[in-house]
Amino acid sequence: MFTGIITDIGRIASMTPTAQGQLHRLRIACRYDQTTIADGASIACNGVCLTVVQSGVDQTGTWFDVDAAAETLRLTTAKGWVQDTRLNLERALKIGDELGGHIVAGHVDGIATIVSRDDLPDMAKFELRAPRDLAKFIAAKGSVTLDGVSLTVNSAVDDVFSVLIIPHTLKMTTLSGWRAGSEINLEVDLMARYAARLTEMRT
């Protein structure tokens, strides 16, 4: 589990297709202390929970390797990642950690598309279009995870919703690079999904 609070921005140092294109081995450069990264650990990369298969240190710093399977490549923006792509990183939640965002599973539900970007004096406003089947889980003042970042929904009408990004978040994540047409990993709020399921069961 995660909280959607980004702790580092990583960079894809290399990509190696394996298993007849059904699997991609990614080496991600980061600033984490390598001694704290255990094989088998979960790290969210742009909101996608991936498992560390090995880690190490080279002349540029710490790196860890993960495998992106065919399903991940099909359902997330990982299909478009290339060498030097920057990724929002978050380590898995530990007992006693501060829950600064909201409960995030790291299981991307779909891909949202940036409709517009409006740079305001003290923040940036983005409008995004969600897949139709996921839009029902997104509500104003509710939580949503975009490229691994926990955000509050500002408005939601039909399948379009908006978020306001403060300068700190723009500085500490990859969100400053979002533009109209950008594809974004979307994870809806778990509580909204459970609430919708309960409503369905009662009807």
Summarize, please.
This protein is mainly beta.
In the CATH scheme, the class of the largest domain would be: Mainly Beta
Number of helices, where a helix is a run of at least 4 consecutive DSSP H or I residues: 4
Number of domains: 2
Spatial arrangement of strands, main beta sheet: 1-2-5-4-3-6
Structural class: mainly beta
Low-confidence stretches: none
- Our estimate of the beta-strand percent is 35-45%
Helix % is 10-25%
Number of strands: 12
Q: Can you write the helix and strand succession as a string?
A: EEEEEHEEEHEEEHEH
Mean pLDDT: 93
The protein's oligomeric status is single chain
Q: What does it look like?
A:
With 203 residues, this protein is mostly beta strands. It has 2 domains: 8-91, Elongation Factor Tu (Ef-tu), domain 3, CATH 2.40.30.20; 110-202, Elongation Factor Tu (Ef-tu), domain 3 (Beta Barrel). The protein is 14% helix and 44% strand. It has 4 helices and 12 strands; from the N terminus they run βββββαβββαβββαβα. The chain has helices at residues 70-75, 132-135, 167-172, 190-202, and strands at 8-18, 23-30, 42-45, 48-58, 61-69, 86-91, 110-119, 124-129, 143-146, 149-157, 160-165, 183-188. A 6-stranded antiparallel β-barrel has the order 1-2-5-4-3-6. Strands 7-8-11-10-9-12 form a 6-stranded antiparallel barrel. A hairpin with a 2-residue loop joins strand 3 (42-45) and strand 4. The radius of gyration is 17 Å and the shape is globular.
